[in-house]
Please model this.
Amino acid sequence: MKTIKGPAIFLAQFMGDEKPFNNLGSICAYMAALGYKGVQIPTWDSRCVDLEKLATSLTYASEIKGLVESHGLQITELSTHLQGQLIAVHPAYDTQFDGFAPAYVHGNTKDRQNWAEQQVKWAITASKNLEIDRHVTFSGSLLWPYMYPWPQRPQGLVEIAFEELGKRWKPLLDFADSHGIDLCYELHPGEDLHDGVTFERFLEVTGNHTRANILYDPSHFVLQCLDYLKFIEYYHERIKMFHVKDAEFNPSGKAGVYGSYSGWLERPGRFRSLGDGQIDFKRIFSLLSQYNFDGWAVIEWECALKSAEQGAREGAKFVTDHIINVTQKAFDDFAGKVDLKQHTINQKTIGIL
Model:
């Protein structure tokens, strides 16, 4: 077994125009002072990194790595959540998702997709330049408007959409494989890959690709009323990344899992800062340790009530307290005094005769 690394934190929700959140160096100093050991970097935020330069210049990659390490931190992974979303977009969401891309591709879905594919490729190459072997992204979605089967979905619609999704991602998975990088999809509502069954559909259309893996975030499963502990038992071999994020689901006589179009504060299912929700993190850390998870425990702060600063401050200790320093010996080794290799074992020895 291996001990989970951490605590680390995803910087996306913290970046801003005010100090210390306005550049990579100052936010690293801030997080290090709170007790963090790693940072996950959003590649779309130029206040953190220049993604193209990170992919094309080993010198720049070395400078970024050195900057983070100068604060006693490591880069855990790079993220292309926003760019990955644009690999597959249903037309109903074109206008909303244009904002994830530069203005020169707005209104042109093919150019936007090509831009997103290049971004993911750069992130894969940048990960290799930084000596990181895994990368997190979103799958995008062609099917989300058809989530509820009313009106009745046309026969074959789901299969056709997943075939197209696989066609778009297979070259990127092959590119990742050539660079020794795992692509870890965050299974998330709004994405075609949002639970175990949809992930299995994706594996089918990508030839069970070895580089198609999972970022495990239990908060998204609580909001779907999915068994987030059993999920680990099913898919632990594919879980290569971990977002530590809490959530709660409090249905009422008025609202349930669909949320009633309400804002995050009023929804029955909402994200919470660590320790304020309903997730059994002791069991999660135990299961991941048992199944030899060798990655980072990365906090993703999202909370409808608590400030980001308080969430980050409390979160570092929360994760530290939950990480299990796995044992390197069996607790009953003291009783193993007899070397059976030195004795003849037969039926009489074990009491059969």
Observations:
- Residues 94 and 129 are 33 Å apart (CA to CA).
